[in-house]
Amino acid sequence: MRRPIIAGNWKMNNTASEGVALVNALKPLVKDANCDVVVCVPAIDIPAVAEAVKGSNIRLGAQNVHFAEKGAYTGEISAQMLKEYGVEYVIIGHSERRQYFGETDETVNKRTLAALAAGLTPIVCIGETLEEREGGLTEKVLDRQIEEGFKGIEDLTKLVIAYEPVWAIGTGRTATDEQANETIGYIRKKLAETFCPVCAQKVRIQYGGSMNAKNAKGLMAQPEIDGGLIGGASLKLDFAQVVNFDK
Ligand code: 13P
Question: What is the pTM of this model?
Answer without folding.
Answer: 0.98
